[in-house]
Design brief:
Strand content: 25-35%
CATH architecture of the largest domain: Alpha-Beta Complex
CATH topology of the largest domain: Fumarylacetoacetate hydrolase, domain 2
Distance between the termini: 61 Å
Number of helices: 10
Number of strands: 19
CATH superfamily of the largest domain: Fumarylacetoacetase-like, C-terminal domain
Radius of gyration: 21 Å
CATH class of the largest domain: Alpha Beta
Length: 343
C-alpha cells in the first residue's frame, strides 16, 4: 500500500471541491472510488449512500469519520493504485471519472479547520534570532493564540498584501492535524489523537503586530485574509514515521529564506497537542509548531527581505510537500485596522 495523503481538489468537470487521495502524479476521488470498490464487491444497491457515509466528499468530514473513514480511504488507495500503475483511469459506478492527473486539477487547502491553535517559541532558534535582532518582545516557549480559519488559503491561491502594512513577513511551520476528539490528554495519549501533518505558513504584518504586542495582543497582524497557508495535503501518520526528522524550507522567487528541520523543536509534537488539549480538540483542528529561524523581521536589513507584490513563495516540508503562492497587492484600504499605540 502506498503512503496516505489526503487532499481537497477541484473536480475539473463539475467544478466541485471534493476529498481525494494524492497518489504520485494522480488524485483519486475518494467518494466515487469507494463507491466503485463497493460495486466491484457486489454491493450494487446503495453503493453511493454507503460511500457518502464512510468516504464523504469533504476532507474535514473524512477526519470526523474517524478510523472507519480512514480505513475506507486506505481501501480506496489499495483499490486504485494497481489501476493507475497500469495507466488506466479509475471510474465510479456511473462511469464518472474518479481519478485525474494532478496537472488536470487544482489542489485546494486540504481543509478548513474548526480552529487553528497557533503556537510560538518552540523552535528556540527563532527566539535567539529575535533577541539578536533586538526585537523588543521576548519569545518564550508556549506562546499561543487562535488564528482565523477564514484566513486559510491553499496551493496556488494568492496572498493579499494589505495596503495598510509595509512589513509583510512569512513564518514556515508544520501544522498538526487532529484526528480524534480529545481533552486533557498526556503526551503519551496525544499521539493517538493526531491524524497527520500539513505545511503551514503564518503570514504576518509585522508593523501591525508590533503595535498590538505593546498592548499584549496578537490578533490583526496575524489574522487578515489569506494569512494562513495550508497544504498541499494532510500526510497521515503512516507517511510520517517520525515527525521530528523532517527538513523544512521556505523560498522566495527560488531563493531559500528559511532552512531548518523539525529536529530543532525543543518540545515534541505530542507535548504540543497535550499542552493545548486543556480545551477540547476536535477532528480537523490544526495546531501549529511555531516557526523556524530566517524570518524577514529579524534579518540585518529586514526591508530587503519582507514580501512584496509579485513574489512567488514556496513553503516546503519533507514528506508532506510544497505549497506555492503568489503575493499580490490588495485594494486601497477604506478604513484603518483598529489598533492603537499604548499610552
Amino acid at each position: 500500500m502506498g503512503a496516505m495523503k489526503l487532499v481537497t481538489y477541484r473536480n475539473p468537470l463539475t467544478m466541485e471541491d471534493r476529498s481525494g487521495i494524492l497518489y504520485g502524479d494522480y488524485v483519486v476521488d475518494l467518494n466515487s472510488a469507494y463507491a466503485a470498490l463497493l460495486y466491484r464487491e457486489g454491493i450494487t444497491e446503495g453503493a453511493y449512500r454507503i460511500a457518502d457515509g464512510l468516504a464523504p466528499t469533504s476532507t474535514l468530514e473524512v477526519l470526523r469519520g474517524g478510523r472507519r473513514s480512514l480505513a475506507a480511504a486506505r481501501e480506496v488507495l489499495d483499490f486504485a493504485a494497481p489501476i493507475l500503475s497500469e495507466g488506466r483511469s479509475v471510474e465510479g459506478p456511473r462511469g464518472e471519472r474518479a481519478s485525474f492527473k494532478v496537472s488536470e486539477v487544482r489542489l485546494r487547502a486540504p481543509l478548513r479547520p474548526g480552529k487553528i491553535v497557533h503556537t510560538a517559541g518552540n523552535f528556540r532558534e527563532h527566539a535567539r534570532e529575535a533577541q539578536k535582532a533586538g526585537w523588543e518582545f521576548p519569545i518564550p516557549q508556549w506562546i499561543s493564540f487562535l488564528k482565523n480559519p477564514d484566513a486559510v488559503i491553499g496551493p496556488g491561491d494568492q496572498v493579499i498584501y494589505p495596503s495598510y502594512t509595509k512589513e509583510l513577513d512569512y513564518e514556515l511551520e508544520m501544522g498538526i492535524v487532529i484526528g480524534k476528539k480529545c481533552k486533557e490528554v498526556t503526551p503519551e495519549e496525544a499521539d493517538e489523537c493526531i491524524a497527520g501533518y500539513t505545511v503551514f505558513n503564518d503570514i504576518t504584518a509585522r508593523d501591525i503586530q508590533r503595535i498590538e504586542m505593546k498592548n499584549g495582543l496578537l490578533n490583526l497582524g496575524k489574522n487578515m485574509d489569506t494569512f494562513a497557508i495550508l497544504g498541499p495535503c494532510i500526510a497521515l501518520k503512516d507517511e510520517v514515521p517520525d515527525p521530528h526528522k523532517l527538513r523544512m524550507e521556505f523560498r522566495v522567487n527560488g531563493e531559500p529564506r528559511q532552512q531548518s528541520g523539525t529536529w530543532n523543536l525543543s518540545v515534541t509534537v505530542q507535548e504540543i497537542v497535550s499542552r493545548y488539549s486543556v480545551f477540547t480538540l476536535y477532528p480537523g483542528d490544526v495546531i501549529s509548531t511555531g516557526t523556524v529561524s530566517g524570518v524577514a523581521a529579524f534579518r540585518e536589513d529586514p526591508f530587503k527581505y519582507y514580501l512584496k507584490p509579485g513574489d512567488v513563495i514556496e513553503s516546503e516540508i519533507e514528506r508532506i510537500g510544497v505549497v506555492r503562492n503568489e503575493v499580490v497587492a490588495g485594494p486601497p484600504g477604506r478604513i484603518k485596522p483598529p489598533v492603537s499605540e499604548s499610552k
